[in-house]
UniProtKB/TrEMBL annotation:
Pfam families: Acetyltransf_1. SUPFAM superfamilies: Acyl-CoA N-acyltransferases (Nat). GO terms for molecular function: acyltransferase activity, transferring groups other than amino-acyl groups. Keywords: Acyltransferase, Transferase. Residues 1-161 form the N-acetyltransferase domain. It comes from Actinorhabdospora filicis. This is N-acetyltransferase domain-containing protein. Signal peptide: none annotated.
Length: 336
C-alpha cells in the first residue's frame, strides 16, 4: 500500500475521476439511498479554506486494484489551532487490506508534526467506519440524529401557512448567496448564542461569532461551490436579528440541501420563529433550487428544541451520526 500526497491545485481530470470513484463506490455500498457526487467544482471543494486554515489530502494506491482510497485533513487556525478534522474514504474492494489504517497513519503523523493535540471525524452509525475507529481508540464525542425531508412528499400549502405564522414585531427576510452588509454584525451576534449550547448540540462549536469571520465563512462557502440560503427574523422595533436559519446546496451534490445552523436569540424564543423561518426557507428553495430532492438536518438525541419543529415540517428521523475524537499522540502509539 502506497500513500501519496494529493494536490487539488495540480491534479488532472483523471485524478479527480478516481477521487469520485472512491467516494461513490463507498456510498453505493454503505448508503445506497444517498445521492452520488458529481465532478462539478471538485477542485474548489478540496482546496478552498477559511483564512488561517489549510487542507492536506492523500491518495492510497494498491498494486492490484489501483486507487484504493483517499483522505483529507483540515487544520484550523486561531483559537482552534490545537485541533483538526479529517475524512477517510476507502473503496469496498480495498477493505481489509490496510488502506484506512495507512491513510490514518499518514494524516496523524502530519497532525502531530503540525502540533495538533486532537483530531476528529464524523461517521454514519450504520457504516463499517464505526468499528474501525473504535478499534483504534477513538472516543465518541457527539451523537446526533439525522432527519430527512423528501421534497416530493411536502404539503406545500401547509408549509406556506407555517411560513406566514409570524406576526409583529417580527418580519422574515430571505437572502440568497450572502447577506446585506448592514446585517453582518447583528447576524453574527445572534449566531454566537450557539456557543452556550450543550455539548450534544454543538460540540466544540467553531461557528461565525463575529462579523469578520462570518464574511470569511460566506466567501469560503461560495469559493468551494456551495450556494447559501438564509432566512432572518428581524425584530422590527429594534432591527436586531431575533433568529436565523441557514441552508447550503453544494454544486458537487446538487440534489440534497444541507441544513446548517438554526438559532433564535433567548429573548425572542417561544414566538414560533424557528418554525416560520424554516418553513419560509422551504418555500424559497422550491423555486431557487428546483433540482433539490431532499433536505437533511441534524439534532441532539434528546430534548432538542428543533426536534418538534422538524416534525411539524415533515422531516423523518433517518440515522444517527457519531463524531469521534482522538488524542494525536495516543493515536500514533496505537497505530504503531
Amino acid at each position: 500500500m502506497q500513500v501519496r500526497d494529493f494536490d487539488p491545485s495540480t491534479a488532472d481530470s483523471t485524478a479527480f475521476g478516481d477521487w469520485l470513484t472512491v467516494l461513490n463506490e463507498m456510498t453505493a455500498e454503505d448508503m445506497p439511498d444517498e445521492p452520488r457526487w458529481c465532478d462539478d467544482r471538485i477542485a474548489d471543494y478540496l482546496s478552498v479554506t477559511m483564512p488561517g486554515e489549510s487542507r492536506i489530502a492523500w491518495t492510497a494506491y494498491d498494486d492490484e486494484i489501483g486507487v484504493a482510497g483517499h483522505a483529507n485533513l483540515l487544520l484550523f487556525g486561531g483559537d482552534f489551532a490545537h485541533t483538526g478534522v479529517f475524512e477517510i474514504f476507502v473503496r469496498p474492494a480495498a477493505r481489509g487490506r490496510g488502506t484506512g489504517r495507512a491513510l490514518l497513519t499518514e494524516l496523524a503523523k502530519h497532525a502531530a508534526a503540525d502540533g495538533r493535540e486532537t483530531i476528529s471525524t464524523e461517521v454514519i452509525a450504520t457504516t463499517p467506519a464505526v468499528g474501525f475507529y473504535e478499534r483504534l481508540g477513538f472516543a465518541r464525542a457527539v451523537v446526533e440524529q439525522r432527519s430527512l425531508l423528501a421534497l416530493s412528499s411536502v404539503d406545500w400549502s401547509r408549509i406556506a401557512q407555517q411560513a406566514k405564522q409570524v406576526s409583529a414585531p417580527y418580519r422574515l427576510e430571505y437572502h440568497r448567496g450572502g447577506l446585506p452588509e448592514e446585517l453582518h454584525e447583528r447576524y453574527a451576534t445572534t449566531k454566537a448564542n450557539l456557543r452556550t449550547a450543550g455539548p450534544q448540540q454543538a460540540g466544540e462549536w467553531r461557528g461565525s461569532s463575529d462579523a469578520v469571520r462570518l464574511r470569511d465563512s460566506l466567501a469560503t462557502l461560495k469559493g468551494r461551490g456551495m450556494r447559501t440560503h438564509m432566512v432572518v427574523a428581524v425584530h422590527e422595533k429594534t432591527e436586531q436579528v431575533a433568529g436565523l436559519t441557514e441552508l447550503v446546496v453544494a454544486a458537487q451534490r446538487p440534489t440534497r440541501g444541507d441544513q446548517y445552523d438554526t438559532v433564535v436569540a433567548p429573548a425572542h424564543r417561544s414566538y414560533g420563529l424557528a418554525l416560520a423561518m424554516k418553513a419560509r426557507m422551504l418555500t424559497e428553495l422550491r423555486s431557487a433550487e428546483p433540482q433539490l430532492r431532499d433536505v437533511q438536518t441534524w439534532t441532539a438525541l434528546e430534548n432538542s428544541p428543533l426536534e418538534h419543529v422538524n416534525a411539524q415540517l415533515g422531516f423523518d428521523p433517518d440515522v444517527q451520526w457519531f463524531e469521534y475524537e482522538a488524542a494525536v499522540p495516543a493515536l500514533l502509539d496505537g497505530l504503531r
